[in-house]
Amino acid sequence: MLRILFGEPPRQDEGELQEAMALMERYLNVVRKQMDKQGDPEHYWRKIEIWTVGLKTSLDELEQSVYASDKFAERVTKRYQAEMDDEELDDYYRHVYFYKNGFIRVFSILDKLGTLLNTVLQLETEKVKHRFSYFTVLRQIRFKGSHPRLAERLTALKDQYGDALQRLRKRRNTEIHHMNAEMQDDLWQRHRSLSDKIKLEDIQANLQDLQDGFHMACETLLIAFEELCKLEK
What we know:
Blueprint: H1 15-38, H2 44-73, H3 86-120, H4 134-144, H5 148-160, H6 162-178, H7 181-192, H8 203-231
Helix pairs in contact: 1-2, 1-8, 2-3, 2-8, 3-4, 3-6, 3-8, 4-5, 5-8, 6-8
């Protein structure tokens, strides 16, 4: 959808994105067969279907945000906002918009997946923590011990991307609970030297973290839905 902003054709899914989308669609087929077979009087499978469709939509939106953030960043050549003309400043703010949208969606996807896994695997994480995150669910999978291979693979993936996730989570928490990330950066720099121009944050480092978050989301979905499909065979 967003590629039209750059005069490009729609995205053709490939790699881990394509695999993740295909696995979620495969699981949806399983879920719909269960609804047809059982009638789903309690609307359990309908709820699972809605959550899975939501995950597909969120992953699509995350990929688009990562792509658009990177494309607008390519147009930013200055290191200080004061040196930018209006056009470059607009591109910088567009980059920031999609960058923030991206890192928020990384954790949104993980938490939605956590809710799905908690329900399907009957983990009862809500008894441990009323409002839980994906990472709480992952700890609960390990604690329950009923899906050791799933717990091992998801934990290894979390650790692999741990540094990038930590930085993204700090940005996400600042954005949601305190102030906009770029405003916090401005405030910190002004505190250091009131006379200096405001230097931009490291855009390429931020984009790399966002790319890592996207890859982690894709790979996490792949592992989780492989397991969910096996459970319903």
